[in-house]
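Supplementary Text 2. Reproducibility record for the structural model of the 183-residue chain.

All settings were left at their defaults, and a single model was retained for analysis rather than an ensemble. We include the record here because the model underlies the residue-level annotations in Supplementary Table 4.
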Amino acid sequence: MTNDLGTFTVRALDPLADAELVHSWVTHPKAAFWLMGDAGLQDVEREYMAIAAHPHHDAFLGLHDGEPAFLMERYDPTEVELKGLYEAEPGDIGMHFLVAPSDTPLHGFTRAVITTVMETLFADPSVRRVVVEPDARNSAVHALNKAVGFEVLREIAKPEKNALLSVCTREQFEAALREGATR
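Retained model, structure tokens:
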């Protein structure tokens, strides 16, 4: 995806080669909702090696103009994260994303990242709906999710947090993009 802020792409995350970089991101205070603040480098390596080996979970490194800038995870919500916690529909895919901490924030950057993540997920024609479960206290991500078309279904209790189960269909995402383009 290319926009006014540059070019955004994703590539498969290498659990060992990318671990040091990802560790610096997930342990940063701005990543508190990622729940890895106390993780050591080996913890991060183990977590992403487990994801790489999992048949229903993938991790990607997002690039901005060729430089690492965000983390993206894609998962089957009927097998990972939400198994048994919601009414799954055919074509559902789960997602997590984390923007790298920056000393020089760029206006609109996080919105460009989530748009890239959503476009990447919807590039698969079998995906009909993206499902997320952000922490109920994370008001910043709730506003961002709403801006790209997510609809909150309800609050759910997960072992590690209370989460807002939210969904976004392909049509809701495309409508949000059109609405954003007219502003």
